[in-house]
Amino acid sequence: MKSILSKFTFAVLMFSSFYCFAWGLTGHRVIAEIAQHHLSSKAERNIKKLLQNQKLAYYANWPDFIKSDTTGVWKETSSWHYVNINAQKNFQQFKDSLEAQKSPNLYTQIENLAKKIKDKNTSEADKKNALVFLVHLIGDLHQPLHVGRYEDLGGNKINVTYFGQNTNLHSLWDSKMVEDRKYSYTEFANLLDIKSKDEVKTIQGGTLQDWLYDSQKIANSIYFHTPKDSKLSYDYNYRFEATVERQLLYGGLRLAKVLNDVFG
Ligand SMILES: [Zn+2]
Question: Are the C-beta atoms of 78 and 67 separated by less than 8 Å?
Fold first, then answer.
């Protein structure tokens, strides 16, 4: 029994790490670019120093690229990109099941990385890696299906077609829903980043757990509107256009908040 179970767990892990690729290139860069606009001057200075004057967007996808590394150094990071939780009735239940998860995941790692950066004993090289991961993972947290259900691995097992092409729900939300808008990442960031100071403050409010719960609620709506074998096209984009934009904007503003807290 034990070996069947461990084979099953292994298969699930292989499956999830193979398919989980997070917001595509543009999505992560839009989030990083919006955050860049909202850094405090102290955070901006400290980050510039760590990244040798490079901008956040340049590094935003690196934690996905290293999934192809064959040395095994980054292997343990593949589970950091998501936290799968089945739908919960309310925030308290969500929080309980989030905290019950012991293995490293999106939630535990965002907290760890922030601590690592604040720790005076962390080397500059490790601080830089932690920063890059933080930029990426706050992005992943705002792709709702990175806080999706266990049973379908955040939508990876829900096959759909999108304009006649075979794909799955997770991958559709990672990239196609963003890339199909045909904006460059800077164009998209500039178009979205138009909120007033007060609105920005409201969006940046709440805790990491609130933000995860927010994503899960959106994931539930996506699941509801996208049963398996759905044939999706213009009407699906129309329905979720505002959701995609909201998540990119909120991701960017909240990333700035986290970075200002950590580096400010
Ligand atoms: Zn990712």
Answer: yes
Residue 162 bridge partners (DSSP): 165, 232
**Domains by residue range for the chain, with CATH:** 21-263 (1.10.575.10)
**pLDDT given for residue 4 in this prediction:** 46
Q: What is the mean pLDDT of residues 208-225?
A: 97
Greater pLDDT, 6 or 33: 33
Distance 63 CA to ligand 1 centre (A): 6
Pairing of strands 165-168, 159-162: antiparallel
Measured from the Cβ of residue 251, the count of other Cβ atoms closer than 10 Å reads: 26
What SS3 state is found at 20? coil
Average the pLDDT over 250-262 and give the result: 98
Q: What is the dihedral of CA 36, 59, 127, 130, to 10 degrees?
A: 100
What is the mean pLDDT of the segment spanning 215-242? 97
- What residues contact 27, with CB distance under 8 A and at least 6 apart? 139, 143, 174, 175, 178, 248
Question: CA of 248: how far to CAs of 165, 178, 215, in Å?
Answer: 25, 9, 12
* Mean pLDDT calculated for residue range 157-171: 97
Q: What is the DSSP letter of 175?
A: I
**Ligand 1 center from residue 2 Cα (angstroms):** 31
- How far apart, in whole angstroms, are the C-alpha atoms of residue 194 and residue 250? 12
Which has the minimum average pLDDT: 51-55, 71-75, 187-191? 71-75
Confidence of residue 67 (pLDDT cuts 50, 70, 90): confident
Cα of 65 vs centre of ligand 1, distance in Å, is: 9
